[in-house]
Every structure is written in structure tokens, then in C-alpha cells.
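Table S2 (text version). Query chain:
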Amino acid sequence: MIDILFNDSACGSLKVAQRYGKGKYQEGCVGIIISHNDGRKPTKEEIKTAMQEAKEKARVAWESATPLGGKTTDIYGFNLVLSIGDISENQPGIKRKQTLEQLYSVYPNDEGHQAAEKIFKRANEDLKEVRERAEAGESLRIWYSDQPDEMCGFYWFMSQLNQWKVRDRQIFIVKLPEWEADKEGSIVRKNSWGEVRPEEWHRYVTLQKPVFPAFIQSCTSHWQELQAENAPLRAMLNGHLVSVSEEFYDNFILREIEAEEEQFSEATIIGRILGKYRLGIGDYWIAFRIEEMIHAGKLEALTTASKDMPSYHRLLKRS
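Corresponding C-alpha cell output:
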């Protein structure tokens, strides 16, 4: 079974899930984050307690996990950020590469350019390999959600399948549930497959269902409509993937800026928007829109980021 995803974090987690829980648990590195609303530093006792709790949680997760099995070479990720930019190309081409380079340019030391180049090259190589394997008769399982990039990736990939020679019941899909109840009965909502932990994947395999040619054709038609519109952005509205203007998320940005003092940290604003509204967009797009606001004279940059930090680690001022 070939697994197709549209999120790098999800790919990594699923690869770990293939062996997660197999054998005796071996304690490894554990990271924790502790903060207080009043800004005071955590005590040594608080850190020790939190570390012990984190280690115990990791042990329980391992021992209760069900390894998925399989090979990491059966997992393919297409993190093409198709909710943003030109999508007129049927396969990743120069326009998609330019979009990736523009978005990742916020990262330091040419890291963004290198990341964009790597993603672009790998996507084309993997697409060719997946097609060969699919047309040879291997089954495919596609993981997607309502997160804009994953939904765009899903429709795009369906349009690829529509051109390939695949058989009925060879294709399976798994959509991330809108919400779930945890062991304590609390409602849990995940924004994308990138938020699924290795010990959780086995629960979702049972949700897979076969796809028929008519469904693939329907998805292809919708993707072709979006390609014809070729808007700057695509977003999920009332359960539908639609074309929207590049200003679509600006109100969320402006709302958080208005709540700040005259001078504020751009990184803080971006982090708050991502956590508070869960829009399914990356830090790079918010940074890009804020840069546009600076060019329009609505904001002023007071400082510049250090060379080893993303460009949005700076102070801004409302004009």
C-alpha cells in the first residue's frame, strides 16, 4: 500500500508510526515547555515534575500503541502549498517553484531557497515513481483534511490519478475527522494530519474507504475549475474549496495588530494568529501579507531580524 500525504510533519509522524510501539520501550529525549502568565520563571521543582510527567506520558503512549508496519519507502509527501499562488500547471513546474521560493524566502541564510528547491525536485521525482507503481497495480491510500493545503493537494492528486491507468478499488481515501472525543470525553479538533502523533495513526486506518472513477472525475473537474480561476488563494468555506482574494486573511491580521501597542513584535502577532484562529495557513503567508502592509505604508519596520532568524523576527510600528 502506497500512502500519499500533503504535509511534511504528517509524513514524518506516519513513518515513525510504522514501528512505534514495537519492542520494549526505551527512554529517549523529552522536551517540555513551561510558562506562567505573570512571566515568572519556573522553579527547578516545577521543571522536574513536568519532565517526569512527560516521560511517563511517552512511555504509556509507546506501550499502548499499535505499530502500523510497512516500509518508509511506501510513504510519499507532496507539500506543494497549493492553496497559495499560481496553479495553472498540471504538474509542478516553474510557477510552483517560484511560489515556493517566494513563501520560504522569510527563512534565513538561504534556507528558504534550498527548502523550496528540495520540495520541488522531490515532488516531481516522487510523482513519477508513484505513477509507475500505481500503473503497475499497487494500491494507494490518500490522507487529507479540510486544511487548505491538504485539500488542494487532494484535488490536485485526484486530477493526476484521472490521467493514469488505475483500476477500480485500487484507490482509498482517509479524511481527518472534524472532531473526536478523547479518553476523558473531551472534544478534540485537529487542524491537519500534521497534528497526529505516531501512536494515533492506527485508529484512522479503519476510516479508509475505496474511491470509484466517478469520484475521481468529479474532483478533477473541480480542480480544473480552480485552475481556470487561478486566484491568489484557495480556502475552505462552508466545507467547500473555493478561490479567494489575497486579502482574505487580512482582517485576522489587522484585528490582532489593533490589539497591540503602537510598537509590537511581528513574530508575536504571527504566532498568535496561527494559534488563535487555526486558519490552516503557514507563518510565511502571514509574514508576506504583513510585508505588503509595510509597502502600503500601513506599518513601519523599526528593526531587522538577526541573520539566523526568520525575517519576521522584528519590531513593527503602526503608521
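Notes on Table S2: The first strand starts at residue 2 and ends at 5. The domain at 250-318 is CATH 1.10.10 (Arc Repressor Mutant, subunit A).
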